[in-house]
Amino acid sequence: MMMMEINSEIVPLTLTIKGGVDKEGHPDSVSEIDIAPGEIIGIVGPTGSGKSTLIADIEQFAFADTPSGRRIFINNQPPAAELRSNPRKKLVAQLSQNMHFLADMTVGEFLRMHAKSRGKDPRLAERVIALANTLTGEPVNPAFQLTILSGGQSRALMVADIAVISDSPIVLIDEIENAGIKKQEALRLLAGEGKIVVVVTHDPMLALMASRRIVMKNGGMTKVISTNEDEQKVFRDVERLDGWLTALRETIRQGEVVA
Amino acid sequence: MKMVVVAGTPGSGKTSVLMHAVKDLLRAGHHPALVKIDCMWTEDDARFKRLDVPVAVGLAKDMCPDHYAIYNFDEMLEWAIAQGADIMLNETAGLCLRCAPYPDRALAICVIDVTTGPNSPLKVGPLLTTADAAVMTKGDLVSQAEREVFRERILEANPGCRIIEANGLSGKGSAELAQLMAGWPDIDGEMVLRHNPPLAICTLCTGELRIAREHHRGVLRHLDGFMEYTGE
Question: What residues of chain B lie within 8 A of the CB of A60, using their CB?
Answer without folding.
Answer: 165, 172
